[in-house]
């Protein structure tokens, strides 16, 4: 069929044509904005989940909904070891000028600009970010040199402008797990101040599943400021809708058997559904798309996922890190104990401690519990099992993998 009409959107962060299975998160976000707009408090949101489940898509939907309600929405993707203070100054400047263009500044906007000037001079010695605002720094505000205090001053000043203008500000942060602990602490403390003053400012983040733990480590009261909705694979009916409905809108049908085969292969992960749907659409001769159409393109789907989703992550590792990941895959997709992974390699957990830590830092593993680690990428274990033979990667050949009740289905679900 004509690729120009293909409704599937496998690109990173691209909104799928049918955004299904996220209704609860969207409804809760609407409630959050409404409560804040009415001067009531509510918990901000950090969406968690594995790679490819649609966290970035959800942030984009939040932004659109906020803007439709007249809110100012500023977005950022957190980069490890970047200057978070300077980035917050840039985002706050953008938000302030959207709330109140300089030509229409009132007293609160002028004060917020002065606080922004103080903050900028503190985090950036030349103050060039606010040079064009042509205003003096507000002495005694956002100039202590302590990010926890200074960011709170800045966000509160911004929130006061938003309240006066009858609008609100939402900061949207992707890859929030990359925030350093002191930066995360400052962000939480700033949010706490806005909650205490019932200001229409909120922070919405998206990150890997360890975010609730990281938030608690940054500030003990974080669990009272945030909700942590976890999103993942789509249940069967919703996965079918994500695949079938966009095609039906264009007059193309799937047989029930063909659609179910795609859902089984992808295990309901949204990014895999979009990739399979794109390829089978391009290769099928016409409607309806049948089971043989689905089966015939499966090698193309597996090759595309290997090249564009799995391999790019595997190539970020050293040989030792890759050996560790392969040993984890030998044990299965579930969270694995550090001691058992090390045993597969004939070493101790202490010997592989730095390796495991680097994999967590790179975002390839996360820690769902003490002594445990799990893959952040769905089906990554299957990719490693089929592409890296034990002999090639140095895993002990005679290691016996524990029996997994789902192992009998391993070859019938996901790339083969």
Your description of this structure?
This protein is α/β, with parallel strands linked by helices and 416 residues long. It has 3 domains: 23-227, P-loop containing nucleotide triphosphate hydrolases (Rossmann fold, 3-Layer(aba) Sandwich), CATH 3.40.50.300; 234-296, Orthogonal Bundle (Helicase, Ruva Protein, domain 3), CATH 1.10.8; 313-412, Winged helix-like DNA-binding domain superfamily/Winged helix DNA-binding domain (Arc Repressor Mutant, subunit A, Orthogonal Bundle), CATH 1.10.10. The chain has 18 helices and 8 strands. It has helices spanning 23-37, 55-68, 84-99, 107-123, 147-165, 181-196, 211-218, 222-225, 236-249, 256-266, 270-283, 291-296, 298-314, 319-331, 338-344, 353-361, 380-387, 390-393; strands at residues 44-48, 72-77, 169-174, 201-207, 226-227, 336-337, 365-366, 372-375. The strands form 2 sheets. It has a 5-stranded parallel beta sheet, sandwiched between helices. A 3-stranded antiparallel beta sheet has the order 6-8-7. It is globular and about 70 Å long.
């Amino acid at each position: 069929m004509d690729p120009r009409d293909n409704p599937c959107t496998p690109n990173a962060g691209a909104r799928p044509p049918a955004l299904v299975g996220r209704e609860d998160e969207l409804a809760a976000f609407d409630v959050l904005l409404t409560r804040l707009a009415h001067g009531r408090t509510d918990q901000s949101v950090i969406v968690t989940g594995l790679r490819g489940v649609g966290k970035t898509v959800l942030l984009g939907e939040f932004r659109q909904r906020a803007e439709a309600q007249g809110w100012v929405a500023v977005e950022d993707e957190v980069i490890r070891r970047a200057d978070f203070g300077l980035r917050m100054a840039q985002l706050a400047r953008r938000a302030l000028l959207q709330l109140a263009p300089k030509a229409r500044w009132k007293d609160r906007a002028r004060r917020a600009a002065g606080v922004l000037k103080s903050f900028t001079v503190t985090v950036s010695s030349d103050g060039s970010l606010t040079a064009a605002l042509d205003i003096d720094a507000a002495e005694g505000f956002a100039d202590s040199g302590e990010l926890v205090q200074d960011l709170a001053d800045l966000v509160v000043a911004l929130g006061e402008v938003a309240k006066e203008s009858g609008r609100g500000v939402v900061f949207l942060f992707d890859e929030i797990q990359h925030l350093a602990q002191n930066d995360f602490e400052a962000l939480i403390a700033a949010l706490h101040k806005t909650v205490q003053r019932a200001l229409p400012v909120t922070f919405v983040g998206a990150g890997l599943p360890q975010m609730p733990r990281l938030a608690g480590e940054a500030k003990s009261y974080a669990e009272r400021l945030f909700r942590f909705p976890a999103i993942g694979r789509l249940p069967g009916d919703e996965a079918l809708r994500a695949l079938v409905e966009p095609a039906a809108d264009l007059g193309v049908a799937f047989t029930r058997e063909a659609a179910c085969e795609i859902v089984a292969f992808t295990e309901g992960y949204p990014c895999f559904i979009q990739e399979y749907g794109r390829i089978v659409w391009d290769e099928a001769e016409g409607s309806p798309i049948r089971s043989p159409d689905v089966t015939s393109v499966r090698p193309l789907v597996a090759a595309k996922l290997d090249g564009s989703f799995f391999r790019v992550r595997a190539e970020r590792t050293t040989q030792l890190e890759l050996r560790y990941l392969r040993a984890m895959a030998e044990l299965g997709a579930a969270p694995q104990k550090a001691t058992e992974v090390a045993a597969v390699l004939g070493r101790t957990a202490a010997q592989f401690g730095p390796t495991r830590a680097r994999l967590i830092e790179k975002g390839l593993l996360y820690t769902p519990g003490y002594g445990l680690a799990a893959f952040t990428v769905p089906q990554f274990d299957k990719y490693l099992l089929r592409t890296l033979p034990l002999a090639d990667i140095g895993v002990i050949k005679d290691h016996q993998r524990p029996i997994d009740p789902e192992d009998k289905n391993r070859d019938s679900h996901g790339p083969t």
